[in-house]
Each structure stands twice: as C-alpha cells, then as structure tokens.
C-alpha cells in the first residue's frame, strides 16, 4: 500500500518579528529570507503597553498596517522574478490599507494634523469601498471632490464648507504623494488637476465683536450661565471651543502673580502656553476644591446648542451680528491688534504656526482704521 505524503507546507519568505524595548514597547521588523539570504526591514512601528482603550485601538491599527506591509512585501518578492515593476504590484494594495499605514506612520512621527487625516481615512470608504491604489486616477479624484462638495453631510446634517472640503482634499493629496515616494503608484492624480477643477476657497469673513459689544454681553443675562462664562473666557484668551471642552483645572496655574494656561490645542495638537488676563480668570467657574483632572467647563452642551444659546443672548444684548462660539476667538484676535499688540505676538497667542493666518485679522483692523479716518471727511464736508 502506497504511503500518502503530507503536502509540503511552503514557508513564507517574510515574517513579522518584534524586539522588546526598554520603555516596555515592542519594535516591529520584517525578517526576509530569500534564496538563502536573510535581511531585515525595520518598520519604525511600535506595539505600546495597552494602558487604556485609545492605545489598544492604536495597537490594532498598527498591527493591521504591519500585516498590509508584510503582504505587500511578499507580493513584491513573488512577482519580482517575473520582472514586474514595483508599482504594478503595489498598486493592487487597497486604498484603505495604504491610508491606515500612512496614518500610523504620521502618528508615530507625531506629525500635526492627525485629526484631519483620521477624518479623511473615515470619509474615503464612505465615498467608495474596496478601491485599489491603481484605480485612483484623475476622474476618481474629481468624483471624490464633487462628492465632498455636493453630497456629503456632516453629523449635524450640514454640507461641508469649501475650506473644510479643500483641507480634506489637501491631506488626501499628501497621502498620495507619500504613496508615489513609496512606489505604490506612479503619480499623484490630484497634482494633474487644473486650477478650475480644484476647490475654490473664498477669503473667509471673520465675524467678530467689538469691545463695546463684548461689554454689552457682559451686562446682559444669558439663558445659560456656563455658556456665558465659557464664551467670555474665550473672548479674553482666544481658545477654541474644542480646547474649552478639554480644559482641566491642572492646565491653569499661578506663575508668581500671573495666571497661565498650558494645554495642547485639540485642532492642531500644538502645545500652547498662554498668560491669562485678570478678566479671563474672572470668567472661570468657581472651583470649590475640584480635583486637578476634572474638566473646568464640564456640562457644556454640544456646539449647535451652544450657538442657539449665543444667538438668543446676542439678541437680548442688542447685537445684530450672527455669532457662533468661534466668534470669541476672532474677537480676541482683533481686540489684541486693535489695542496695539504686534502681529507676531498675536499669532503666538492664537497658536498659529504661520503668521500669514493672523494677517487676516490685521486686514480687518486696517479696514476699521480707514473707516475711522474717513469719518473726518463726513464731519468737515
């Protein structure tokens, strides 16, 4: 009777391995063995101690990215003998896998804009699922841009602003540029778009309150005291609502006789260290022995509801402008420039990485100066 041979199990040429590091994390690398030769590829991706659910989710994303890289390397090795170009093999990689790999690498580097990039990673599958990198051409990109502008709605049911849509396309383009450098795709199709095919972002109109209007709000009762305090606090320090939501008592401290706030801005992940004026401190709620880790403005409603409260408050104060919470940040910027602070200092107080962003407020102040000077003509003509 013939002996039945067990099928020979083929060994994978690429294996994932880890190396323990002193800080308790593990560094991932690939062990590649081909034609009797061994080489290693250190991925600069790390498995972190799972101290909370956020880290656990990050580890899950990292593992998925590593498996995608491993599969990509195996395909490359398999096809290289057939003389295929790297991009022809790598372009079969799914867009979702590439974006996850790119996001993990950016987070490892501590790059700015992680929140926006995560949003782009979430939006792409909503537009089209199971897309291969090689399928992303100019027509695909134009379709994505059109979808962002005319179909997609935010969780509040509103269309995206041109600025937000342009930001998302910009971050997607950056990820495609990285794919070109990694030889996943031969070119970035977004770079081939004509100016008329790109999203046009109108110069933003920064609504703000004058000093007299801020005084009017102070003298007017607001439907919610916590909203009034949070809004006026931002008028005197320029923090965004996302930063107000996250602000804890430990972030505010007394440095000699000067109160300061030290936090990381939620939008840009930029550390910011600000002095607080006496009027800013005045609008902080009573602490009553609250612990350092507790949020200062706990219990604030969601942004749409805050803006409804602000609208009623503004009407009661005799203000006809349409104000939202972000108006407080604009008001702080224009107030600083109006009172004589220089552009660079104001930029740092706002946490802007580029002073050009702050120049928008300078234009507003300059236009008000022109109006003031022209009042002379109306008096003497």
Automatic annotation (TrEMBL):
<dbReference type="InterPro" id="IPR013762">
    <property type="entry name" value="Integrase-like_cat_sf"/>
</dbReference>
<dbReference type="Pfam" id="PF00589">
    <property type="entry name" value="Phage_integrase"/>
</dbReference>
<dbReference type="Pfam" id="PF13102">
    <property type="entry name" value="Phage_int_SAM_5"/>
</dbReference>
<dbReference type="InterPro" id="IPR011010">
    <property type="entry name" value="DNA_brk_join_enz"/>
</dbReference>
<feature type="domain" description="Tyr recombinase">
    <location>
        <begin position="204"/>
        <end position="374"/>
    </location>
</feature>
<dbReference type="InterPro" id="IPR025269">
    <property type="entry name" value="SAM-like_dom"/>
</dbReference>
<protein>
    <submittedName>
        <fullName>Site-specific recombinase XerD</fullName>
    </submittedName>
</protein>
<dbReference type="InterPro" id="IPR050090">
    <property type="entry name" value="Tyrosine_recombinase_XerCD"/>
</dbReference>
<keyword id="KW-0238">DNA-binding</keyword>
<dbReference type="GO" id="GO:0015074">
    <property type="term" value="P:DNA integration"/>
</dbReference>
<dbReference type="Pfam" id="PF17293">
    <property type="entry name" value="Arm-DNA-bind_5"/>
</dbReference>
<dbReference type="GO" id="GO:0006310">
    <property type="term" value="P:DNA recombination"/>
</dbReference>
<dbReference type="InterPro" id="IPR010998">
    <property type="entry name" value="Integrase_recombinase_N"/>
</dbReference>
<dbReference type="InterPro" id="IPR002104">
    <property type="entry name" value="Integrase_catalytic"/>
</dbReference>
<dbReference type="InterPro" id="IPR035386">
    <property type="entry name" value="Arm-DNA-bind_5"/>
</dbReference>
<comment type="similarity">
    <text>Belongs to the 'phage' integrase family.</text>
</comment>
<dbReference type="GO" id="GO:0003677">
    <property type="term" value="F:DNA binding"/>
</dbReference>
<keyword id="KW-0233">DNA recombination</keyword>
